[in-house]
Backbone:
């Protein structure tokens, strides 16, 4: 299970508590997605997070190669446009490389390269993507079919809740969540309801 962070969904003190609780209760990967932070702030946040979370939890930097190199994080997550610009330069064999995709065409392009996982979104309606039509399960099935035979994990994102997670996991390798956990008062129980 992947947690995508958003510090605007909880206060500063609670933010690190959520990440810590998540890492000890089933979250294996944390994508630090604080796109508005300057490099020095993101660097500090990475080290604060690393101190608090389970040693086994992977911390993946969102969209910032400079910070990836400075802090030696476990990996990088890129929006598709960033991936498209850098795909010929990807040289991190020992790092996790993730890419956000929003169409089958993007998946077809990404699967040609050595990436660890791709996130396909958004699957269901979500308040994060109001007025945008969700992809739905049928497109997730198609995404799964496209990756058949490739060593790339398919991660579903967007509107995934305890009541639809079981069906969703029939057509992907894992799920990513953001608001359900970032806004939770009881992270352990929230994660348990997904698992």
Residues:
């Amino acid at each position: 299970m992947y947690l995508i962070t958003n510090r605007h969904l909880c206060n500063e003190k609670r933010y690190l508590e959520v990440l810590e609780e998540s890492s000890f209760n089933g979250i294996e990967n944390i994508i630090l997605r604080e796109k508005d932070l300057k490099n020095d702030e993101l660097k500090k946040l990475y080290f604060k997070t690393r101190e608090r979370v389970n040693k086994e939890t992977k911390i993946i930097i969102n969209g910032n190669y400079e910070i990836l190199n400075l802090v030696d994080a476990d990996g990088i997550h890129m929006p598709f446009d960033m991936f498209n610009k850098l795909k010929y330069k990807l040289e991190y064999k020992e790092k996790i490389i993730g890419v956000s995709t929003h169409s089958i065409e993007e998946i077809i392009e990404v699967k040609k390269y050595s990436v660890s996982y791709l996130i396909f979104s958004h699957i269901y309606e979500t308040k994060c993507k109001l007025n945008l039509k969700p992809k739905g399960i049928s497109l997730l099935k198609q995404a799964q079919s496209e990756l058949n035979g490739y060593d790339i994990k398919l991660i579903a994102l967007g509107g995934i809740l305890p009541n639809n997670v079981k069906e969703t996991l029939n057509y992907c390798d894992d799920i990513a969540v953001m608001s359900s956990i970032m806004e939770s008062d009881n992270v352990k129980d929230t994660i348990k309801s997904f698992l």
Observations:
- Strands lie at 2-4, 29-32, 58-62, 75-78, 96-101, 117-121, 153-157, 174-177.
- The chain has nine helices and eight strands.
